[in-house]
User: Fold these one by one.
Assistant:
Number 1:
Amino acid sequence: MTVGPEEFAERRVRAAEAAKAAGLDGLLICARGGGTLDRYGDVLYLTNHYTQFPYIPDLPGQWTARAHTFVVLPADGAPMLIRDVPDDGRIQMPEDQQVYTDLVLEETVAALRQAGLDKGKVGLVGGDVLPVTTFRALCAELPDVEWPDAQTVLSDLRKIKSPGEIAMLRRAAQVGSRTIEAMMEAAKPGATHGEVVAAGQAVLNAAGGALYNSFMASGTGGPEPVLIKSNFPTWGSTRPLAEGHWLRLGISGVVDGYVFDVSRSRAIGNATNAQIAAFEAAIDVVEAGIAAIRPGAKASDLAAAGKAKQQELGFPLTGVFSGLGHGIGMGWDSPWIAPGDETEIQPGMVLNFEKTLTRDGYLGDFEETVVVTEDGIEKLTDARIRWW
């Protein structure tokens, strides 16, 4: 860890100050773990705690709100962490500000009352992972509380990374780079998607990382294109790679709570001109977005630069993701590199640029992560770029 207890304490103070400035009496921050990598970041950011217990329905009197963790954070007063699993030694919060319980909902209500947050405006952070049944129970127990959405309090804090966070994101990006290189090396004729992923998992698991997903597809282009992919799991296709196929790999995962996100493309066997055109176009679009980073630039400006390059290269403006990327940290952070996001790009932001392009059945995919510095950028991903 390159982030110490003082920084975690400072984050809680800043969150409380932001809540007060927004006219809130405090915050209730919810995160969900359960072995997944979806939406655990807000509590981890404040306390360095993650619950691995899986989600199970409530059994009143025995357990409630399992797989969820809460931080009760009054605008004036001491915070409280309510968790459902033992401390693995990583929690960065005083022991007297923690409750370990199976009855997570009941202890969260008690902590809110103890903090004087049983009335007034309590901003809700992480409401998208809070089960409706749990939220209704909170409302029934605390009828005098208003629950305005306060997600921006944490997203605003998280979008600028500290030097310690940048170091952890650098390591995550490097682990992700080694992982995708192992996968690309394993992409030989006769290999299945699952075997390609397994080669990367061996590298990732040994580094203490966890795979979020492997967005992958292979196939052929031309007048009768073939697309080979699976949604669940994404590496579930049993059709092996063959000479003449193109392959795209986009992987994301987590190392010590921080996310990596990287993609590459290659040909199986000798690359054709049409395959190379798609591969190079994806690189060019991403690099155009990165090159647009300058003082005063907005996220939408970077997206526009990538879009202009894509149009110049003659690739359709369609795909599963219309943006050019996003902030990255303990999840997908602000800003979104997309039309309409007017967030100003600032030093300390860590940005992930991505683009998947298709034309005539050929597909190119490329993704890089950079940190914005005072005088430019530092690239964090260092995976081999060209495999042709």
Number 2:
Amino acid sequence: MPAIHVKSMQIGSDAIDVHGHVNNQEYLRWMQEVAIEHSTLQGWPLPRYLEAGASWYVRSHFIEYLRPALLDDEIRICTWVADLEKRNSLRRTLFLRDADRSILARAETRWSYVDLKSGRPLPIPEILRAAFEIVASESDVLHALAFA
């Protein structure tokens, strides 16, 4: 069970906007995709959340764009859980291009663990907490990926 989930991909034409680089909406979509993939790999696919009667709702997103990603770029999207508080969690994401060893963007999402019936935040159960190792710093991630 990896503390850091990494997805490699090549940028296709469907991700490119009128400015010739990856559209901002794609970063947000990819953030959600890798979060779901990571949770699934940790033993928490969507059906398990539904059985528990709770799931993660986005509270906030933040994305800092540093360099453009372009058509045919090979990138890695890396995500990890940076903290687990009582009812919410911070997940961070890096978008990396190996060709020039650059960080394209860094992002974070604050997720709230929510009861599906009431829509109210719930305490994160210990069994769910145990599935995710906390990786506190971006430098730890870059070092683990030999990107530092």
Number 3:
Amino acid sequence: MVTAPDEHGELEGPYITRTREEWASLWESSPVRLTGEMVRALRATQDPTEVDQIEQVYLPLTQLLNIYIAEANTLHRRSNDYLQLNHGSVPFVIGVAGSVAVGKSTTSRLLRELLAQGPGHPKVDLITTDGFLYPNAELQRRGLMNRKGFPESYDRRALLKFVMAVKSRAREVRAPVYSHLVYDIVPGEEVVVRRPDILIVEGLNVLQPPRRLSRDGSPTLAVSDFFDFSVYVDASPESLRRWYVERFMVLRRTAFRNPRSYFRRYVSLTDDEALAMASEIWDTINAPNLVENILPTRGRATVVLRKDESHDVEWIKIRKV
């Protein structure tokens, strides 16, 4: 249940809430632009995000991010001066989290494009945590094929080492590549990240806290410990379920028909059978993962973008600094 803001837009707790109209009014004119054609190329299947939503939601978000980035750079320079160090700038890391089918990929790609047009035209890289899923053979060995997307299905140690290396300004950091077509890690393929100014890390569980203590009883690290800013893309469970089923039906008529597709077997199903299959996958895998693992991390985000049933962002929560 959403608590309405008071006359000052304030909420109890660590967040303030702004309606989309209030949020849009914060944007100050800038040279950053996206055309309709660019938006269509960036958005995911079944995501209806259009230019007006970018102008009203994502441009103000980008300007807020640029404030955070500028302040982080200033703090780094002043810290270097105080400690008499001569270290280069540290990459600014942004986490993007949320459920399956909520539109994380579109949000991440839009932020990458908009931030790259910002002050100084920074180098912005995007990595998804899909590449850190264990290969299917390993998931089968561990009995986790039906838990794909749950925290235990990821090589969290490898993901943590990757983000730590980027944050430490390693010259070159490599990550595995995941194919949604074959539903597995692609052997021999890698994504190479070379000292970006900004790194966006997108994934279901990127805001998870450490899950256990080390042998000496001290807390372990989580990838979210290295985020400078985080975004949680939110929607009602009912909308998420409907979007997932709709996307499944579209993919059944398109990508699933590819001879290499892991899901090709679903093409021969009747519409009713396909609807039943998509609903079962959601109810037995995606919904439990949302409730148990993803949704509990929403309160750890810097910004929450809440979508209505039409995929439009209707309000924004911002953590008080």
Number 4:
Amino acid sequence: MVRAGSDAVPPSARRFMRRARQRRLRAAAPWAVGGAVVLLGLLAAWLVWGTALFGLRELRVTGTDLVSPADVREAAAVADGTPLARVDLDAVRGRVAELAPVAEVSVSRRWPDTLVIEVVERSPVAVVPQGRRYAVVDGAGVVFRTLAERPADLPVAVVAEPGPDDAATRAALAVLAALTPRLRDELVEVTVAGPAEIRLKLRGDRVVIWGDASRSETKAQVATGLLRQRGDTIDVSAPDVVTIR
């Protein structure tokens, strides 16, 4: 038998076969491209999630004063080299938020190798005497620090058990927030002995009987106006009918 040469194939048949090959190549091209994209995606995912190529190299802490960056890093508990993509941001945020002086915290990634922890610390509002020390509370009544000496710039609140769930603490803070600048300057301490037993001790051994924490802004204005009057005790527990003696 003699194999027919290419010249033996009619031109029309050759054109048909060439078009058929081109159609097969065009049909296969998307699959080839798709497969390559998938492989590249898997490779990238492995590099990001499974290797230390994008691992943690720096843990940056901002906004700290009462706590140290070292304390925040310890609380965050993220080991060097941990793939950045695998760091649980919510878990880190929760651990750092457990530090008493921390009011708010945000955690974010900075590619390729940095974790940023931004801290907002609590602001002191008052101190509560506890034995020979002073518990510092914020506006929500959270105790976040203890000092050996009373800070000169913070008012004193005398309550039995300071804390955000303590009614006496909340009442003291409500009264302190309502004080006028004049009353705050004169204030020595605010004492909450019961729901309707709030008293202000002022300089010069003067006392303001406050009653409960209701209408505190009105009581503050009335008490301030009566500071010019003689008398050691100012009773604004019923601010519409006040007494001074």
